[in-house]
Every structure is written in C-alpha cells, then in structure tokens.
C-alpha cells in the first residue's frame, strides 16, 4: 500500500518505469495521435440520487468540445434516481466489440453497488483487450466497494469515504512539470466541495494535485495518472457539485487529462495538432507549483528573500507531501494585510503574493522559454487595497535597480490620486476611470499580437493600443519577459495565479 506522504520522486520513477515497461507503441492512442480524426469518446453517466448528472453531462460535453474541438461524444446515461437504480448494467455493456468503437471512455457515474462482479471484470477486460484509455471523474473512485474491489485497479486508488462536511477546499499542484498540470493554476479554491480521502494510491500512479482534509488532518490526492495493464487512466475526485464540475479551471483539467489519456497532449501541455477548440489549452502557470522558483528580483530590495508565510512559521522553498509540516492557511486578503512587512510574501495555501516595500520589480526568468515572449495572452488575479498601486511590465528585461527600461507597463490603480488607472499603458495610452474596486479580486488580462495590445479587466476590454510603425528603441514592442512592480511601503497589492499562453510569432 502506498501512502500519500512521499515527495513525488517515487511516483515520478514509477511513471517512467511504467512507460518503459509497456512501450510507447503499446498505447494505440499515441499512434492514433498522428492524424486529426475526431476523438470518439463514450461518456458513462448517471446512477443514483447523489449528483445532478443531467446538468453535468451537458457541462462536460459542451466544455470539452469548446476546449478540444475535434471530439465526438456518445452518452450512455442511466437515468434512474433511486438507490435501486445504482446498478452498473449500462446500456452498452462495454463489450470488446463496443469498446473498439471508441478512443476513450469517460466515467462520471455513481453506480455504487453492483450485484454482478463478473460484469465489472468484463468492463475492465475490454479496456485492456482494446487498449482503450479511461477518464474517471469523482464518484467512480467509490464504485463497487462492496462486491467488486478489483475496480480500484483501474481507477488507481482505493477510496471509501469523503469529508462529512462539504465545504470548498484548496487544490495544490503537486507535480507542476506534468503536462496535464501546465494549464492549472498553482492553487485553486473550489467553488463548492466534497473532498474524497483515498486510503491507498496504487504504486504505478503519479499524483498531480492534492488537497488538505481538515477532518483527517492530512493531505489527499485529488488528481493522478495511472496505468492499468498498459492502459492510460486519468482520475480526478473533483466535481461533486455542478459549480465545481462546470468551472473553467476544472474543465481545463479534465480536458488536459482526457487528451493525455488519449495520447494527444504535448509535453508542454498543449494539444497535438488538430485537437484545440475555441477555448483551447496551452496556458502555463508562472508559479511553479506553490513556489516562486524561476523569478528574479531587483538586487536593491529584499525581493530576493521571498518568504513562505504560514502563521508563526517561515516555510522552506519546497513543498513537503507529509502532514507534520502543514497548517491550513486561510485564503483571506484581510489576514495578509496584517502581516509584517517583508517586501514580498507568498501565501502557500492561496498561491498569493503580497507586494509592498521599496520600489522594486520581480522578473520572470523560469522554464517557460526563459521568459522570452513575443505574442502571448497573460492573465492574473489582482487585489488592491485603498490608495495602492502597482504595475505589470511586459516585453521587458531584468534590471538590477530602478524602473525597467524595456517594454511597456500596464498600470494597476483603482483609487490612488494623481496616477492613471488600471488598464493604462503608462505614458502611452491612458485610462482615466477605474474599472474595478479596491478590496476585491479582479482579473487582469493582457494580449500582445504583433503591434496590437489589448487589456481587459474582469473580461471587459478597457484599452486597445496599436504601436505606430515608427516606434523603436527599448520602450517598444519587441519581445521579453513579465515583471511585477512594487511601488513603495505605502502601497500593498496582491497577485494570484499568473498564467501565460503563447501565440504564434
């Protein structure tokens, strides 16, 4: 039995060993990724009164189609609503003949008890014989616990219970370098929650994300990859409630997991050619897990001593999967406001950085192209306190001290007097009216496409600027990295979940 307390090294080795042992060519889906035929997916859903599968099947079909595009669904919905309907004899039976018609089977069902374990064995055998990958969402991790425990060999985890109290919880990335997690923010607070507490993770499973269960005072995996006799499986325990299942973050996760299972996800988290819908993937987090590794600070300030803040303790720079070093941190801006001044603090639980102190800058120089961006989309959540201001530099370069010389600055300011407002390109294209309020989170979006810059606040365009053809010199659109600004000790601004998606040059 593998307890979920390791550092991730064993899981990563298991993942590599599994890949070597089965061989890449054994996975029919990888070979199939060379063409752009529609991805044929069988969705098994329904069973019992515990979930709104009528809504969720629509959320999944529409949300995954938006993100993948070239996908076709066949939906098998057991529409019974009573406990007597919690059977697993779905219409298709998933025989060998049926299974070979599909590239993948997505399970979002809750047929908890089964009277025919042989039928479950037949389903698992069909996956193996035809090498059909699977995606397991939420309740499949609890299926057949009474009469068919072998089912856990395909889910990758043994799970019998969840927290009694259903409350939102914070999901933390555990394996940030896995392509599935490239499109996931470093941390994410679920809108609503039902946290499963698996008691065993199979030896050839690779945990991708985790959450803390207050009732058990322990971390539990919430997403992982798994190989069952050569078959790729992606599992996630998220999605009990409709707001969580249908959220953009969760649908991005499911889309990435589905593409990975089908062999159509590149190492950088982007889909293989032909499998990117209108909402596509390709977003990468600039926080690597819950760390600031890959960021470089101005040398004249204490940015370079970024600290993990957790109550009375200062955290190390590497997450520990054990339980003895973790204390739950509330995701509250009000609490951050009362912290001692350190120049920059990273809240471990909320993946939030508080910037204050002397005027300084923090520059991205991490593994995503080393921070060398030309055309891109960038988004980040921002929180301003009254009278505070900051900025986001782009197409910029590291500068040891003083104001960055290269690129443009997108202003952040709702109420500070005498300065341009949020969405302004400082000194170039001004916005005079604030489009958000202090003391609340807002989404900040910047797009650079050639000579055109588009800035949105909370989804609404507040500034569009096209650089004249005769503009040249450092303060122009060339290429470069992202920089975050601290303007002084009288200003406090929070940043959360910075994400970038590169566009063709």
Report on the architecture of this protein.
The protein has 505 residues and is an alpha+beta fold. It folds into two domains: 9-272, Rossmann fold, CATH 3.40.50.880; 295-502, Jelly Rolls (Sandwich). The protein is built from nine helices and 26 strands. It has helices at 9-22, 28-32, 53-68, 96-99, 117-130, 152-155, 242-245, 248-261, 333-337; strands at 39-46, 71-78, 104-109, 134-137, 157-158, 170-173, 187-189, 200-201, 206-213, 218-228, 231-236, 284-285, 295-297, 307-310, 313-315, 344-347, 352-355, 360-364, 376-384, 389-396, 408-413, 441-449, 452-457, 460-466, 481-486, 493-502. Strands 12, 14, 15, 16, 17, 19, 22, 23, 24 and 26 form a ten-stranded mixed β-sheet that branches. A nine-stranded mixed β-sheet has the order 2-1-3-4-11-10-9-6-7. Strands 13-18-25-20-21 form a five-stranded antiparallel β-sheet, with no helix packed on it. Strand 3 (104-109), helix 5 and strand 4 (134-137) form a beta-alpha-beta unit. The longest helix is centred in the N-terminal third of the chain and has 16 residues, at 53-68. It is elongated.
Key features?
505 residues; alpha+beta; Rossmann fold; Jelly Rolls
């Amino acid at each position: 039995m593998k307890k979920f307390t390791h550092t991730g090294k064993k899981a990563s080795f298991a993942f590599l060993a599994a890949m070597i042992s089965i061989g890449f060519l054994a996975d029919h889906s990888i070979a199939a990724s060379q063409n752009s035929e529609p991805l044929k997916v069988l969705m098994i859903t329904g069973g019992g009164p515990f979930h709104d599968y009528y809504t969720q099947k629509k959320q999944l079909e529409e949300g995954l189609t938006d993100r993948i595009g070239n996908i076709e669904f066949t939906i098998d919905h057991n529409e019974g609503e009573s406990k007597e309907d919690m059977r697993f004899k779905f219409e298709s039976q998933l025989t060998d003949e049926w299974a070979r018609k599909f590239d993948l089977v997505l399970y979002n069902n809750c047929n908890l008890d089964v009277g025919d374990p042989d039928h479950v064995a037949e389903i698992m055998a069909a996956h193996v014989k035809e090498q059909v990958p699977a995606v397991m969402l939420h309740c499949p991790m609890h299926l057949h616990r009474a009469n068919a425990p072998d089912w856990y060999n395909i889910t990758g985890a043994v799970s019998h219970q969840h927290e009694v109290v259903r409350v939102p919880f914070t999901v933390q990335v555990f394996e940030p370098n896995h392509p599935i997690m490239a499109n996931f923010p470093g941390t994410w607070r679920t809108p609503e929650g039902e946290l499963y507490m698996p008691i065993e993770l199979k030896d050839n499973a690779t945990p991708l994300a985790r959450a803390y269960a207050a009732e058990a005072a322990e971390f539990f995996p919430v997403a992982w990859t798994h190989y069952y006799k050569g078959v790729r499986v992606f599992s996630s325990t998220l999605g009990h409630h409709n707001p969580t299942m249908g959220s953009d973050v969760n649908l991005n996760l499911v889309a990435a997991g589905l593409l990975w299972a089908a062999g159509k996800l590149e190492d950088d988290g982007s889909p293989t050619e032909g499998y990117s819908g209108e909402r596509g993937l390709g977003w990468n987090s600039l926080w690597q897990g819950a760390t600031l590794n890959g960021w470089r600070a101005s040398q004249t300030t204490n940015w370079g001593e970024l600290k993990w803040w957790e109550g009375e303790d200062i955290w190390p720079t590497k997450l520990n999967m054990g339980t003895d070093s973790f204390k739950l941190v509330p995701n509250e801006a009000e609490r951050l406001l009362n912290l001692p001044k350190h120049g920059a603090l990273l809240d471990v639980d909320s993946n939030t950085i508080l910037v204050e102190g002397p005027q300084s800058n923090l520059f991205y120089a991490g593994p995503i192209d080393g921070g060398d961006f030309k055309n891109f989309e960038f988004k980040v959540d921002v929180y301003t306190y009254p009278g505070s201001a900051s900025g986001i530099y782009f197409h910029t370069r590291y500068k040891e001290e003083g104001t960055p010389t290269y690129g443009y600055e997108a202003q952040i300011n709702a109420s500070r007097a005498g300065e341009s407002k949020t969405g302004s390109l400082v000194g170039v294209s001004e916005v005079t009216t604030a489009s958000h309020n202090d003391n609340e989170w807002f989404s900040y979006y910047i797009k650079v496409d050639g000579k055109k810059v588009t800035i949105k606040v909370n989804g609404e365009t507040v500034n569009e600027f096209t650089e004249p053809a005769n503009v040249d010199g450092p303060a122009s659109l060339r290429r470069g990295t992202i920089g975050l600004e601290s303007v002084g000790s009288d200003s406090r601004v929070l940043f959360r979940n910075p994400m970038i998606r590169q566009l063709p040059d």
